[in-house]
Design goal:
Number of helices: 6
Structural class: alpha+beta
Order of helices and strands: EEEHEHHEEHEEEEHEEEHEE
CATH superfamily: Cyanuric acid hydrolase/Barbiturase, RU B
CATH class: Alpha Beta
Oligomer: single chain
Strand order of the largest sheet: 3-9-4-8
Shape: globular
Helix content: 10-25%
CATH topology: 60s Ribosomal Protein L30, Chain: A
Largest sheet: 4 strands, mixed
Radius of gyration: 20 Å
Distance between the termini: 27 Å
């Protein structure tokens, strides 16, 4: 793990020509609404056109840097549990120490933790059972939510960024406080606010579950003083699916630089600002497709570009009904 001081972004927008091996990823429902199928590739480049010279970087300016890390492989019975949360916290904490030693204050105001985490399959559940172990759920789709939730909680705890908001019976937020690891129990992972009257969340974490791995792949995106990248990142959140002001606020912090992409989370909600939606009751379209299409449209409208990444399933990733996000610009 180390910082990449010459980080550039490469974009591939896919038109009529399709790459055979990736056709499935480029078709609906993976890109609902106005979302444009494309790839975002982070790369370290030595090409001068991708980097700023020392005299081109204003004093005190911080540019894009990346740190990558991973957890150990998890056993099936650990997916979506406190053990997964603790291991993710450990991995992200170690990655942060590679950027800022303990004796140096952490002054990064903008950072975004992107995680790819595992999920359960029938074969993995059966393998655990053969050893006398019980998984947290036997519902493979539910396991995706629990895995995202545990991973997100761990990443947030590593940065003291996990917030808890308490609500009354009408869902009105009464207070917000920073949460410590000892405050989290297994029952809190993906607990609905309607059931508990509270919810833990972070505005700087994004997690997605996939069947192709048994560990968490972690990418930390931030700004650092040693970077000579032409790119910069700004982080923020949407309070709900139509929070265009939240998107604009995130973008405006980049000072007018050209926006090249936005990474955002989308959380299905039965109500948006008091108005009923069918996101959770539509029998034809899955809730996450509804949410991603809606959020993608709002983000595209705010930036003027539908080439954005919107991920569904925002357990502990931004306020309930909203989601975390980051925008990346270039000069």
């Amino acid at each position: 793990m180390r910082r990449e001081i010459r980080t550039c972004l490469l974009f591939v927008t896919l038109g009529t020509a399709r790459i055979r091996a990736l056709t499935e990823l480029l078709e609906p429902p993976f890109h609902p609404g106005v979302l444009c199928p494309h790839f975002i590739v982070f790369a370290e480049s030595t090409d001068p056109k991708d980097c700023l010279e020392d005299d081109e970087v204003p004093p005190g300016d911080e540019r894009l840097l990346l740190v990558t890390t991973r957890t150990r492989d998890f056993l099936p019975e650990e997916i979506g549990t406190l053990e997964m949360m603790r291991e993710t916290e450990k991995a992200v904490s170690k990655a942060w120490r590679s950027i800022f030693p303990p004796e140096q204050p952490d002054l990064i105001p903008d950072f975004f933790v992107q995680i790819k985490c595992p999920l359960l399959t029938p074969a993995r559940i059966a393998e655990a059972a053969s050893r006398g172990k019980t998984c947290v759920t036997d519902d493979c789709y539910r396991s995706m939510a629990l895995s995202r939730g545990a991973s997100s909680l761990g990443a947030a705890l590593s940065r003291d960024d996990l917030l808890e908001f308490l609500t009354d019976t009408n869902g009105i937020i009464l207070s917000t406080k920073v949460t410590k690891p000892g405050d989290i129990e297994q029952e809190h992972i993906c607990m609905d606010i309607e059931d508990a009257g509270s919810k833990f969340y972070s505005n700087f974490v994004s997690s997605s579950a996939g069947v192709e791995l048994m560990h968490c792949e972690i990418l930390i995106i931030g700004n650092g003083p040693d970077s000579r990248s032409r790119h910069k990142v700004s982080c923020g959140f949407m309070r709900d699916a139509i929070d265009i002001d939240g998107v604009k606020a995130c973008v405006e912090r980049l000072g007018g630089e050209k926006i090249v992409t936005v990474l955002a989370k989308a959380d299905p909600a039965a109500f948006v600002r008091g108005r009923r939606t069918t996101q959770l009751s539509d029998s034809d379209i899955h809730p996450t497709r509804h949410a991603r299409a809606a959020v993608g449209g709002v983000v595209a409208a705010a930036t003027g570009d539908p080439r954005v990444y919107v991920s569904g399933g925002a357990e502990h990733q931004g306020p309930s009904g909203g989601g975390s996000m980051c925008a990346i610009s270039t000069i």
